[in-house]
């Protein structure tokens, strides 16, 4: 797919994520509104059912099991009639309700009267049924019914699974005055139920008030919310991993290309030098001039050695990557190996006008390792410090021991490595190209990859502390040999 270039992948992923986020938000909002509606209906039915149940209990005391009572007082129609009777509060309307049980029948009377003249007013005294009881007795009974009503409502609310703050308001039946409680500020998340009577004495009406139902809705939507977030998170993670993988692949492909061209160039140089030398010997009959001949032969031998060491390096790396490298483990003292490498590199150090400070340790430092690979590791690290630092570089090699672990530190005051590359420099073929002063430094990008692999095979690790412009500190950490 030519049009699906890598530069479009990131914006495409971002757009896809933003669109899915918006769709999820719209869907969740829709769900929230539907859930809110259904919750409001549930809360309303909790109060109305409690009102019906408590009223029935007060009416049918002693007749709770009677089929006739249940058929009448628990019917939908009776509830609707009651509700309508309660709700009808026209100005100056007097509603009277009477209920009584005689020997063989029950009587329910609903009576409404209003004054024709709007200027006249009824005396709003209790219009409810008292069945011959004193006003005080009726009030006491009303309070008891109110308590039962409230606790029934609370019990049902608790069954919803999430505790919500709630309270109630009480209204005078006859004139609708607020007697107790406080209405919440009109917020979108508040719920206020209808007003319900809870007995036949018709003194007061009960209203449930929930200041906020938001958290209850969220609680009821929890599975949808979790799955929605999980889906978004997984999509984002999948995109992130894919893009990272793609970037790594690109980097790798780029690094491999550079490696091939570098290597070709590096191999080409000694071959050209040797062929020029051989041609000169032939052309100018240098066999007759032994001094010059020796010089040309020396150059050729040196170039051949360089060629061989380069080929060996690539082959060694190839073997290591294939897992075919077998370490020749033996008990080795790290210090003499390091000293040997340092003296072998003396010419390079001097050529660069650098100073290499070696801080030896007083005691021998034994590890179980492969001397050849370990000395290659030291060579690579000192070589890098020399290669990438400007002239008059200061390189310091030191030891430290902690928790039966040996740390060999290679510190330089060169250009350092930007924090974003601290992991990548250990990847195969990776080289930093935009560092000004190392533009022309030759290399294959295999050195640190090899170092890491060798040290890992020895059960150790390589730590790198560096900042751009602040030099590098490569720390090789190896387990010290322990006698059992
Ligand atoms: N001491 C250092 N100071 C600054 N940059 C460094 C240092 N050591 C390594 N680097 C950076 O890390 C990159 C990888 O180093 P590595 O040794 O793996 O490869 P190389 O030196 O380019 O090639 P090779 O070692 O295979 O000849 C280098 O290209 C360089 O940019
Ligand atoms: Mg190197």
Automatic annotation (TrEMBL):
Gene Ontology terms: cellular component: plasma membrane
Entry EC number(s): 2.7.13.3
Residue ranges of the TM segments: 223-243
PROSITE patterns xref list: HIS_KIN (PS50109)
Pfam families recorded: HATPase_c, HisKA
Primary enzyme class: transferase
Any GO BP annotation: cellular response to phosphate starvation
Catalyzed chemical reaction(s): ATP + protein L-histidine = ADP + protein N-phospho-L-histidine
One Gene Ontology term of the molecular function aspect: phosphoprotein phosphatase activity
Domain Histidine kinase: 262-482
CDD domains: HATPase, HisKA
Identification of the protein by name: histidine kinase
Organism: Pedobacter terrae
């Amino acid at each position: 797919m030519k049009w699906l270039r890598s530069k479009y992948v990131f914006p495409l992923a971002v757009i896809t994520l933003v669109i899915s986020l918006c769709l999820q938000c719209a869907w969740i909002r829709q769900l929230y509104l539907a859930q809110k509606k259904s919750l409001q209906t549930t809360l309303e039915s909790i109060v109305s059912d409690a009102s019906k149940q408590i009223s029935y209990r007060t009416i049918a005391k002693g007749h709770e099991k009677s089929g006739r009572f249940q058929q009448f007082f628990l019917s939908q129609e009776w509830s609707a009639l009651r509700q309508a009777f309660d709700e009808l509060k026209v100005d100056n309307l007097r509603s009277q309700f009477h209920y009584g049980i005689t020997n063989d029948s029950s009587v329910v009377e609903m009576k409404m009267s209003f004054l024709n003249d709007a200027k006249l007013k009824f005396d709003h005294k209790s219009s409810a049924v008292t069945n011959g009881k004193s006003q005080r007795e009726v009030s006491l009974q009303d309070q008891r019914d109110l308590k039962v009503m409230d606790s029934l409502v609370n019990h049902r609310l608790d069954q919803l699974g999430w505790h919500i703050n709630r309270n109630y308001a009480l209204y005078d039946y006859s004139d609708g005055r607020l007697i107790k409680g406080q209405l919440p500020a009109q917020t979108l998340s508040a719920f206020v139920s209808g007003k319900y009577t809870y007995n036949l004495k018709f003194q007061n009406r009960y209203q449930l008030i929930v200041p906020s139902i938001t958290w209850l809705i969220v609680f009821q939507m929890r599975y949808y919310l979790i799955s929605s977030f999980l889906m978004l998170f997984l999509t984002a993670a999948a995109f992130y991993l894919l893009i990272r993988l793609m970037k790594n692949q690109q980097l790798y492909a780029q690094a491999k290309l550079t490696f091939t061209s570098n290597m070709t160039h590096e191999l080409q140089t000694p071959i050209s030098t040797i062929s020029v030398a051989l041609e000169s010997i032939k052309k100018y009959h240098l066999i007759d001039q032994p001094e010059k001949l020796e010089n040309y032969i020396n150059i050729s031998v040196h170039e051949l050695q360089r060629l061989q060491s380069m080929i060996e390096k690539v082959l060694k790396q190839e073997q290591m990557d294939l897992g075919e490298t077998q370490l020749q483990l033996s008990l080795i003292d790290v210090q003499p190996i390091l000293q040997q490498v340092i003296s072998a590199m003396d010419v390079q150090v001097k050529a660069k006008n650098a100073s290499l400070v070696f801080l030896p340790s007083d005691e021998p430092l034994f590890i179980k390792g492969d001397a050849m690979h370990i000395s290659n590791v030291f060579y690579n690290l000192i070589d890098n410090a020399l290669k990438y630092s400007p002239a008059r570089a200061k390189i310091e090699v030191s030891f430290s021991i902690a928790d039966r672990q040996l740390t060999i530190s290679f510190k330089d005051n060169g250009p350092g490595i930007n924090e974003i590359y601290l992991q990548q420099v250990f990847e195969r073929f990776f080289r930093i190209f935009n560092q000004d002063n190392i533009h022309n430094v030759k290399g294959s990008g295999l050195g640190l990859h090899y170092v890491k692999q060798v040290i890992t095979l020895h059960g150790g690790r390589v730590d790198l502390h560096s900042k751009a412009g602040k030099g590098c500190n490569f720390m090789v950490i190896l387990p010290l040999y322990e006698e059992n």
